[in-house]
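Target protein
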Amino acid sequence: MKKLLAFLLAAAMSLSLTACGGMSKEQQLIADVVNETIQSEDFAQWQTLFKEFTGNTADAPEVRSVLHYQIDDFEGEKADCYLINISADIGYWINEANQEGASSNKFQICIDNTTNISYDSIHSDAANFNGDVSTAEGRALYLLWIYLNMANDDYSGSFLNDTEIVTEFSEKDIQAINDALSK
């Protein structure tokens, strides 16, 4: 009886912690992917390049917006992904051999919600997307390319058509993700 009571009490406490500020599965997935990205050697190199290119110390990265994007028919396939806009001071090579670099104060990540594979706007060169949407990666990069252009105020309207469902995360949701990143 004591074990049952202890178990029920533990379950009630767990549920109350979740209700009072725990993260949703979506928020946790996004926080995990963003954290993995900003803790990577590549990201550290991007921030080092930013300092080399600009002379300024890079600010800490922060999630600015998240969209949950869903559509039932994207080239015959269902698309379900998270598009994340992150403010971060980064530098990257356009042509390293010629020492041509660029800097930016933001970058984007796309997480395919069915495979949990993520793509970022720097590694994937989303700004120069080639238009091939015949693969899951191509479709994710297309969405990332549009999101990148939206973040730069170079695109407005729907991603594909009016059958898509685009849900923007609330400020509270984004704050929970950023709080997890700062721990």
